[in-house]
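[recover] target loaded
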């Protein structure tokens, strides 16, 4: 029996979403952090694209141009994001966002972080005359072998990996810290 898409959005998402295997996610999957520190500068939800360009000292690349969506269409969009990242981290994060029943204009941009990976920001503005704000971040780090991911000594819920840059993920607070070699990483 096919499920009505309308019904899929305003109840629990009916997509199998296994628990995140944290080491595997950190080694080679897309994270959905709440906060990202890049060389000591903090990226939080609610920033504008210009804020991010200034903070990261680079210009974004457009992934999706502005699109008008109703709250139902946005919910379906979030459901598609979950289908691309079917794990409990995304399930909970996207579930919180869908409860806001956002409508208006939506856009996606990304930044190539040298020797780190890709930071993607999902933006929303309720109308054309309002400023956009980031409501979701995806961080896709350069993949590494699973044995390169370690638990930080004395901190059970902090994963680290080093390479051209040092990256840490505090699982409990869902924060990622990045230090590039040029900045003492």
């Amino acid at each position: 029996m096919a499920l009505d898409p309308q019904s899929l959005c305003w109840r629990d998402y009916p997509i199998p979403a296994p628990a995140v295997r944290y080491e595997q996610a950190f080694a080679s999957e897309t994270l959905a952090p709440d906060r990202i520190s890049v060389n000591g500068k903090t990226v939080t939800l609610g920033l504008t694209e210009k804020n991010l360009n200034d903070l990261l000292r680079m210009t974004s690349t457009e992934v999706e141009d502005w699109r008008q969506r109703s709250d139902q269409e946005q919910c379906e969009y979030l459901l598609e994001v979950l289908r691309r990242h079917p794990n409990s981290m995304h399930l909970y994060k996207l579930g919180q966002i869908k409860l806001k029943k956002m409508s208006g204009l939506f856009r996606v941009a990304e930044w190539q972080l040298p020797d780190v990976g890709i930071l993607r920001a999902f933006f929303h503005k309720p109308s054309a005359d309002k400023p956009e704000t980031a409501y979701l971040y995806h961080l896709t780090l350069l993949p590494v072998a699973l044995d390169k991911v370690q638990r930080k000594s004395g901190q059970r819920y902090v994963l680290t990996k080093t390479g051209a840059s040092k990256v840490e993920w505090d699982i409990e607070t869902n924060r990622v810290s990045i230090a590039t070699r040029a900045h003492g990483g």
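[recover] notes: The mean pLDDT is 89.
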